[in-house]
Amino acid sequence: MTTPDQESALNFNQTQYQNVQSPLDVSYAHSINTIASLRDYIISEDFLAGQRLNGRMSNVRRFFCLFVTFDFLFTSLMWIICVMLNGEYIIKALTEQVIHYNIHTSLFDIVLVSFCRFVILILFYAVIYVNHWIIISISTAATCGFLITKVLYFDWPHSSQPVFEVLLVLVSFILAWGEAWFLDFRVIPQETYANRYIVAGENERTPLIRSYVQGLPSMYTESVGNFYSPQGSPEGSLHRYQPNELYPRYIVPLRLSRQEEELYKDVANKTLIEAWELFQMNDWILQKVHQNDSVYSRIGSNKKKIFKLQADIETSPRYLLDELYYREQEFPKWNSAVKESHKVHSFDECTDITYTISKDSAGGLVSSRDFVNLRHWAKRANSYIICVCKTEHPSLPNNKKMTRGENGVGCFVMEAVDNPNKCILHWIVNIDLKLWLPSGILDKEMAAMMFKFVKDLRNHISSRTNGIHAEFFAYL
Which membrane topology describes this protein (predicted)? Predict the structure, then answer.
């Protein structure tokens, strides 16, 4: 006689995982078990620089204020040097420059303009904390207008130190534009970036007193953070994350706007159509056969070769879908070609963005590459298809330490057969490694990589099957 738990385990074993519930199914949206490990998400340095800790000024804005202060002090120092180089007594020289000011002979007005710019920018961007470029655009335009006028009216032929005086004008011009550039391209974007994460999901239905931790991926409604108070870490600390030496920037699980999410979903749907059409084409040429596994190839519209693997797998199509889509963070544990794999953003149950780092391959000819992919799965006829293509994400700029590869339209197709516990796996690879290799070497290495992948996959599925069987017999 068996208990209800033993009967459940027996039923699960008999169906050979055909109806395994995906770990991110929306039907579990209200369970804390759906929360992915925070190790799967990385926080960006831009977020840290733009955040306001305990209401204080952000790091990037504080640097901007220091830059504005440096502008005024440096301009004043250069002006004093120009005055001293005239060889006159300091009091007399300053009196002629300031008290007996003349636009044709004195450069004190450049210092005065720098001081006015300093006061205005500190007032609006440090005290009032304005988050708009209009103030600095006015101050920069006014500075440029004045400097052009100064150049036209200044008596250059009778100047005693023309080189230093020209430098003073040019330095003032460059610093004014440098301030405008830094505010518009660094301060405002980084603070907006951090603010989007912290106050994600603000709308008319958001309660005044929030009961949920903000900033988790959009498909999750709850967080383990709602059930306990973790020990605080130092301000701005990332000690709870494991840094990646090749990609030290940390991915923020951003909550994109509805329009941005719809754009990603539209691209995913178009990719699905293209991938299915690519799979159904009948011009594939057999490239190599290894132990009943076959690799085919064809020339794509961009004149580059596309590869397809066909292999029999001892598991159901649905279970293989779960392994290849919902458990991508486990790829490094069993896929010998993958070094790291992270889920960056989930749009819904069937669409997400992932970040993957490959290992060196081809005997060192191809160094490690990173990939940012948009993925989407659906059911077509008697098959499940996971389409993939390259994409971009605001949290994943190009890494200077690594070449970014690109995936064209490709897919996994899990085709059902008569036996419900078996399927045919088709894997279409359309990859650009940003590296030229002779076609003979490329064909050989791609075929070897695909055969190695399916071998790793079989070993992984076998180990999971044996593990579940052991759990089942433990109930008996």
Answer: Multi-pass membrane protein
